[in-house]
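User: Can you predict the 3D structure for this chain?
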Amino acid sequence: MYQVGVIGDRDSVMGYRALGMAVVEAQNPQEAADAVDELVKNHYAVIFLTEVLAEAIAPHLQQYRERRLPSIIPIPSIQGSTGYGLRQISESVRRAVGIDLFSHDDEQDGHRPQLDQPQDLIEES
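Assistant: Here is the predicted structure, written as structure tokens:
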């Protein structure tokens, strides 16, 4: 069975223990990098990592980006989001499908790409 781990400062990650996730406290980038490596070595499938630490060790995390597992997901800390997690999601989507779903560039030419709405998916009778 796949396991899920969470890495970050104590206040940000302690609540995840109640959800059955492995919690690893990391106070600095080196501790975070070591914790990621340990969870990867132990075959964790999903690793949540606070945004501040994820951004600080981004070059270290690059080695895991092309692997199927683990999925390393930046999450906000107790202090709030830095925006890094959303930027990473945007980059992953852009790489996967070739468009930036979160970009506002298309608004300059008067339209914004729209995702299908539920009513658009219903066939008319």
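The radius of gyration is 18 Å. The helical segments are 10-13, 29-41, 51-56, 58-61, 84-97.
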